[in-house]
Design goal:
- With 233 residues, the protein is α/β, with parallel strands linked by helices.
- It has one domain (27-50, 75-232): Rossmann fold, CATH 3.40.50.300.
- 33% of the residues lie in helices and 27% in strands.
- The chain has helices at residues 40-48, 70-75, 92-96, 106-119, 136-147, 166-183, 194-200, 225-231; strands at residues 2-11, 14-24, 29-33, 55-60, 63-64, 77-80, 154-158, 186-191, 203-208, 211-217.
- The chain has a 6-stranded mixed beta sheet with strand order 6-7-8-3-9-10, sandwiched between helices. A 4-stranded antiparallel beta sheet has the order 2-1-4-5, with helices on one face.
- A hairpin with a 2-residue loop joins strand 9 and strand 10 (211-217).
- 41% of the residues are buried.
- It binds adenosine-5'-diphosphate and magnesium ion.
- Adenosine-5'-diphosphate is lined by residues 11, 16, 34, 36-42.
Length: 233
């Protein structure tokens, strides 16, 4: 569904991505792991068109993702940002239904938001809270509800469990796995949480030195030398 070919990106003299090749099939869940600062978020931003790569290209259903195809691509994707990134000045339901705002009356958008909140385990009363009133775990759930509000075919997760205690983190992992399965969506999750990888990933890729140095099924990850070396620091 998405194919990344030879993506390179430098900031000034510093090369962050040095030719990344990666692909995600329809309905597949890919985890990208790597040390902090290795360019995982930059890679996601390249796919989303938020950062312009110096070289390489991104294909979506075998066609280059460019200015012409980007709007349709963006229409069908959802993203859970690192740290949830909610709009502080908007109540929860307006955050969740943000993308629907110009498309339908507010009452209908609110109804959809409440359905999505239920999907992530939050009661209807949550809809009228402000982001400042949420715990970290609740904010992640709201961010997840926003990511799935428009029933996306592709969902990106940037560090979905960072900042959560282990119990909350495993709850979010379980939700992500179930939602991705129910939606039949493709997913790319960036993480350094190996418990997350085991729970939500079909495949795991290791980004190191600007390249993918390992790419294989999660079921076989324990035998992979590159991953063992990474985990042992
Ligand atoms: N807009 C930018 N301008 C300059 N440097 C950047 C920019 N975005 C990211 N970087 C640098 O790129 C490197 C990779 O960042 P990032 O992708 O956020 O890492 P991570 O793997 O932790 O997500 C870091 O050294 C970061 O400082
Ligand atoms: Mg990051």
């Amino acid at each position: 569904m998405i194919r990344i070919e030879g993506i390179a990106k430098s900031f000034g003299p510093k090369q962050v991505l040095a030719g990344v090749d990666l692909q995600v099939d329809r309905g597949e869940s890919l985890c990208v792991i790597g040390q902090s600062g290795t360019g995982k978020s930059v890679l996601l931003k390249c796919i989303l068109g938020l950062v312009r790569p110096d070289a390489g290209r991104i294909l979506w259903n075998d066609r280059p993702l460019d200015a012409r195809s980007m709007p349709a691509f963006l229409q069908g994707f959802g993203m859970l940002f690192q740290g949830a990134a909610l709009f502080d000045s908007l109540p929860v339901w307006r955050n969740v239904a943000f993308r629907l705002r110009d498309r339908m009356p507010a009452s209908r958008a609110r109804g959809i938001a409440i359905d999505k909140l239920a999907r992530v385990g939050l009661p209807p009363e949550t809809a009228d809270l402000m982001p400042a009133e949420l715990s970290g775990g609740m904010a992640k759930r709201v961010g997840l509800a926003r990511a799935i509000c428009d029933d996306p075919g592709v969902i990106f997760f940037d560090e979905p469990t960072t900042g959560l205690d282990p119990i909350r983190a495993r709850e979010i992992d379980a939700l992500i796995r179930d939602i991705v399965r129910d939606q039949g969506a493709s997913a790319i999750a960036i993480t350094h949480d190996m418990a997350s990888v085991r729970k939500i990933g079909d495949r795991v890729a290791l980004l190191q030195g600007g390249r993918i140095v390992h790419d294989g099924p999660v079921a076989e990850m324990d035998g992979a030398a590159a991953l063992r070396a990474f985990l042992q620091g």
